[in-house]
Amino acid sequence: MGTPRRTPTLARVTLLLIAVLVSACTASSTSSSPSQSSATGSVTLTDDAGREVTLAGPAQRIVSLAPSNTEIVCALDACDRLVGVTDFDDFPTEVVDLPKVVVQTQVDLERLVAAEPDLVLAAGNELTPSSVIERIEDLGVPILVLYPESLDEVYADIELVGDAIDRRAEANELVDGLRVRVAAVEDAVAGVSAPLTLYEVFHAEGTTYTAGEGSFLASLLALAGAEPVTGDAEGVMGAEELAAADPELILLGTASYDSALADPAAALDAVRARPGWGELAAVRDGNVIPYLADIVTTRPGPRIVDGLEALARAIHPDRFD
Amino acid sequence: MRAAAAARPITLGPSIGRSTAVLGGGALLLVAVALVSVAVGTTGVGAADAGAIVLHRLLGIGSPTWPAASETIIWELRLPRVVGGMLVGAGLACAGTVFQALLRNPMADPYVIGTAAGASLGAVAALLVPGLLPIVGVGWLGLGVVQVFAFVGGVVAVTVVFAVARGQGGTPVVTLLLAGYAISSLLSAGVALLMFVSGDRLAAVVMWLLGSLGGASWPRLAFAAPLIVGSFVLILLRWRRLNALLLGEEQAGHLGVDVEREKRILTGLAALATSAGVAISGTIGFVGLVVPHLLRFAFGPDHRLLLPASMVYGAALLVLADLGARVAGGIPVGIVTALLGAPFFLWLLRRSLGPRLAP
For chain B, does the N or the C end have fewer beta carbons within 10 angstroms? Predict the structure, then answer.
């Protein structure tokens, strides 16, 4: 019989979830370049997708399509210029009550237009879908795509937003402060022996999602004095690959969202029960740490340095007495 | 009296009054649903402004007293979505009616012989291979590469299925269904393979496969509308032949219908309408399967009434489902159609168990 062929909806939603998680820890390379001002007060910027965007003047009404973008704007003391954010936004607290333009990861174009923005800050790597970016362009709203994949690119994006809102001096000051703190972490972990470390981003059905080869998260782990277990570029590892890698230390980023993993003893029991995990060196030696700072560690805004510091403290507590 | 009754054609049509009630009621429903959909959204642009903006843009009546953002919301976002919902819903329901009659199979829907799988493979390939951009040329008819590839994929898939199923004695329905099933499986495997290697673009692929009217814009509608409306008119002109086909291919042949020719033409038209719809909205399930059945339950199997009714009620259903999807936070409309439609359909099925299920 000719039964219609369709993937069950549940499976598709699961795939979507995985897609979001996977894309959160993958890598590709982009760059941004500085701005030029002209006599008319307009400013032309190049975003992380290589797009040239011209603003009529410093942006006064900003819609942010990613919490990391929101945090950059607020760190430049321009929280009051935000007119729309996502329903994931939780920092700083004053953004929680702003109009939500992204609901359940879907951009609501109608609310976006109603907010009457003169600048939209999107996320790259399909976190803001390219079809949505094109649509917003078509509607005539300037849109900058931010997709930092290293600390240097976070700095560059802070400066880019600084140029877009005429807060370049504040941006430079902020970046200088971040650089000092990163240097302090590097000093603190200088010369340590780097433990082979698995950072668990997500775990389901025997498959572990970790910091992908060459990803931002992997570079942070390295800076924090660890040798990251990476798997492939997507950071996907089966139980066998994990057993072969045999990490000495496991940071459960998942504990940030799953209270059942927040207690160290309970977390150790939980991972020991997973097929094959009981034999890992980290589990045998009890080196499984519920890591509760996942949000700042994986959200590429100014607080990423908080994340770096939290990683370094978790991996080398003896260096931070 | 008796002689007059005997002289009437075999296919007793519905009375004029009944047709008027069914189609008029459907049209009223569609207009009401469309008006509500334009007036309701996730922002506070209300009915009064919405009406004034539409009148201003269509007829030049009145001068703007509303914010520019409201005009963009009504004219560039809500209205194309509503019109897109009408087109896709009408096209899918009409194509479903045709396939159910042609294949004499109650499980038939617009996607049954390969359109969905072909369009999906085309769209996913376009989403994943940026190198395709220069081949087709950006902005062809105002469409994205994804839309073009989806449309072409759907049409090509049906053509291949038909070519495979065609033998010396014509194209048997069972062979057509089985070939459609096999080709769909093959193409679906291709889609799954591409998804597996899609890496960070997987989310975009999944969103497309779930189906949404969020991408509806005037240029895309300008592409799909002539294909869907044109196919519908040509299909409607063949209502007598569809009725004859309900009696079986042999009987239809006795009644003077060139069965093989009709199969080719009707399949082609239904596939065109389906592919055009899928190109602008992704694969939205359920509408094309259920609307024809509902209408057959309610109004009987005469295609003179069934075809226009499927068009009108299919349009109303999808616009209504999309309103629900928008208000519920932008969830994909295909989820809404199945979530609300399936229980209703099951209830109806239980109520009228029996012979009328088969077309």
Answer: N
Nearest-Cα distance to chain B for A142, in Å, is 15
How many Å apart are CA A49 and CA A33, to the nearest integer? 11
Is residue A146's pLDDT more than 80? yes
Half-sphere CA count of B279, side-chain side, radius 13 A: 31
Quote the minimal CA–CA distance from A82 to chain B in Å.
17
pLDDT confidence of residue A26: 39
Domain B84-357 classification at class level? mainly alpha
| Extents of the domains making up chain B | 84-357
Partner residue opposite B204 with nearest CB, options A6, A115, A129: A129
Among chain B residues, the shortest Cα distance to A117 is held by: B69
Task: Tokens 């009296």: give the residue.
Answer: B1
What is the reported pLDDT for B131? 56
Closest Cβ–Cβ partner in B41, B69, B111 for A116: B69
Residues in chain A: 321
Partners of A7 on chain B (C-beta within 8 Å) are 188, 209
Which of A12, A21, A65 is most worth mutating to test chain B (most B CB atoms within 10 A of its CB)? A12
CB-defined contacts A:B, below 8 A: 130
Ordered structural domains, chain A, with CATH: 42-183 (3.40.50.1980), 191-319 (3.40.50.1980)
Q: What are the Cα distances from residue A117, in Å, to A64, A75, A127?
A: 10, 19, 20
Q: Quick check: B41 and A110 CB within 8 A?
A: yes
Q: Kindly report, residue by residue over B183-238, the tens digit of the pLDDT.
A: 999 999 999 998 888 776 787 788 788 888 888 888 889 888 999 999 999 999 99
Judge whether B210 is closer than 8 Å to chain A, CB to CB. yes
Instruction: Give the ipTM.
Output: 0.75
Residues of chain A positioned with their CB less than 8 A from the CB of B335: 9
pLDDT in tens, A76-95: 999 999 999 999 999 999 99
pTM (global) more than 0.90: no
Candidate from B45, B77, B185 with C-beta closest to A5 = B185
Chain B residues inside the 8 Å CB shell of A111? 42-43
- Smallest Cβ–Cβ distance between B107 and the set A3, A22, A134 belongs to A3
* pLDDT of amino acid A174: 97
Rounded Cα distance, A168 and A180, in Å:
18
Q: Which of A4, A115, A129 sits opposite B111 (nearest CB)?
A: A4
